[in-house]
Amino acid sequence: MTHNVKIASVAAFLAIVFIAVPVLISASGRTDLYYTLTSVALLSIASAGVWLTFYIGRINIGQGAYALMGGYVSAILVVTYGWSFWLTLPAAGLFCAAASVAIGLPILRLRGVYFAMVTLVLTEVARLLALALPVTNGAKGMVSIPLPGALSAFGLIIIPDFATLHNSRLAFYLLAAALMVACFAVVYRLVHSRIGKLCQSLQQNEELASSIGVNIAYLRVIAYAVSSFFGGVAGAIFAAISQSIYPSSFTVTDSVNFMLNCFLGGLGYVFGPMLGTLVLYFGWDLLFQTGQFQLLIYSTLMIVLMLFLPNGLLSLAATTRKKG
Amino acid sequence: MADLLEVSALTKRFGGLVAVNNVSFSVREKEILSVIGPNGAGKSTLFKLISSFLRPTSGQVRLKGERISDLAPHIAARKGVVRTFQETTIFKNMSVRENVIIAHHLRSTASLIGFFLGTSTAKADEAAFGASADDILELLGLSSLAGEIARNLPHGHLRALGIAIGLATNPSILLLDEPFAGMNHDETMRMVAMVKRLRELGLTILLVEHDMPAVMKISDRIVVLNFGEKIAEGTPAQIQNNDKVIEAYLGSEDEAIGL
Predict the structure, then answer these.
(1) Helix (H, G, I), strand (E, B) or coil at B230
(2) Cα–Cα separations (whole angstroms), residue A53 to A15, A140, A213
(3) Rounded mean pLDDT of B198-225?
(4) Chain B residues with CB inside 8 Å of A194's CB?
(5) How far is CA B109 from the centre of its chain?
(6) Strand-strand pairing, A151-153 and A156-159
(7) Interchain proximity B116–A211, CB inside 8 Å
(8) pLDDT classification of B256: cutoffs 50, 70, 90
(9) How far apart are CA A216 and CA B185, in angstroms?
């Protein structure tokens, strides 16, 4: 793709997300779609994190743990310590990143299915911790979390108090979409810089990578920390939207879904997790009309997709472009 | 000539098995030294010990007087001891040129954050790596294959790519693990010429090898291992006439044919 085409497609994407969608929704009056699309944006941020761990050659089924952790960190800081939501957002991300360094140092030595199993357990451990710790309020969860307050700097209000807004759904949508754009921009830049090549070298052969002087342990932990940061931030906003968080807010199913989003969109494409999340989320909702057959049809479709499109939906676009 | 690499009293035990037992020798600057020995003599273990992929049970390896055993492999590489692999170990899904560019990692002056932000140092690094990679590919006769995805390369070129990756790290000493394995006569002779050319460029080379004719042709000196112990050291001519070596290589066969 030439430079101009790239800029044009980014501009088109931003126009759709920030202008076309709000205009269409207000014209149709389907404001419930805001909530759906906000969820898609947030889930795709968490999935982008998972995608990044795939990129260093690790199957990560533990993103739910960090989403839950981020949600609780934000909720506790807001409710118990009276922090502004806007401060808790980076705090939640950084807390998750720090936790993932401590957890990642030992477990990232594992490869393949062994790493996958440990991360799967991680989600369950996070849920049990949320049940058991005194600070998380156990099974009752944290409820009535206030909406994000105003964010101001140098006396200027940058973001107004969500509680005073006529349409807080739109505000959350814009927040989630902006963060999604920022996160994918970061991942895109990572992948297309030398760091991306280093990550690929880990994915393809760790022994060779260390023989050419790459500090593989360090690089793995960095990638995992960025991944968990994304999970934490997404979780924190989810807690703020639903104004509550429970131990069951993110479960093993969510962790598996984050991974499926990556598979569905395509592991070879930065924007794979975004498309995967969108398709999976709406696909699941559409299948709701089939009632008791929902899960059956859904899983059959997933198997067929994996068989015939092992490189994800975006590989379709890539092949047509090559042919044309 | 000064000693570049010094192996002293190196021992490695795996449980009850002593794979390498009290082996000492040194590699001089700009020489080609080969380690040979029958199957199971401990060559591969010795190789991994020197490249820090294994930690010795006792003894040590020194590069220019500095101890490098017990370091992580990537730190040993940074100090200048770089290995190639016996198997065709490459970054399969990258192009040949990308393989060599990524292997310039140790020469980067920019930080990871610098590369992320695309600072001018990072851009200068990238340009320098690209130019250097082209030189290395030229040297090893891989220029015409630069854009090829590495997994599609034929066998002989894969071995050359492995060496190109090693060269890109700018090593003080390059360790080659069985560079002639699985090659026919012509390929072997080409590889012999290539390794000699590397030495002319100022590299020191230590190789572990099975192929006796190639070793005799290429080496300045040879170290012979048997059952984990060093049984001889010397020039190819000395080794060829060493009774212990002849016994190690032929002894078992003599018994087998009833002599």
Answers:
(1) strand
(2) 30, 33, 21
(3) 91
(4) 102, 108, 115, 122, 125-126
(5) 26
(6) antiparallel
(7) no
(8) very low
(9) 38
Poorest-pLDDT segment among A76-80, A216-220, B245-249:
B245-249
SS3 B86: coil
Q: What is the dihedral of CA B215, B216, B222, B224, to 10 degrees?
A: 80
Across the interface, do A205 and B116 touch by the CB < 8 Å criterion? no
- Which of B91, B101, B115 has the CB atom closest to A193's CB atom? B115
Which residue in chain A is spatially nearest to B167 when comparing CA positions? Answer: A212
* B-interface mutation test, from A211, A214, A222, A226, most B Cβ less than 10 A away: A211
Note whether B95 contacts A: Cβ–Cβ < 8 A.
no
Enumerate domains of chain B plus CATH numbers: 3-253 (3.40.50.300)
Distance CA(A214)–CA(B54), nearest Å, equals 17
Contact indicator for B226, B249 with CB cutoff of 8 Å? no
Distance CA B85, CA A291 (A): 57
Taking alpha carbons only, the member of B247, B215, B248 closest to residue B234 is B215
Substitution target in B47, B115, B170 with the highest count of A β-carbons within 10 Å is: B115
* Nearest alpha carbon to residue A188 among A68, A10, A62, A32: A10
- How many secondary structure helices (H) and strands (E) does chain A include? 14, 2
Q: Is the pLDDT of residue A249 over 60?
A: yes
Judge whether residue B258 has pLDDT over 50.
no
Of B53, B82, B98, the CB nearest to A197: B98
Give me the pLDDT at residue A79, please. 93
Which of the four pLDDT bands, split at 50, 70 and 90, describes residue A284?
confident
Q: How far is B130 from chain A (nearest CA, A)?
A: 12
Predicted TM-score (pTM) of the model is 0.89
CB contact under 8 A, B93 and A200: yes
Q: How far apart are CA B19 and CA B34, in angstroms?
A: 18
What ipTM did this prediction achieve? 0.87
* Tens digit of each residue's pLDDT (9 = 90 or more) over B73-122: 999 999 999 999 876 789 999 999 999 999 999 888 888 888 888 889 99
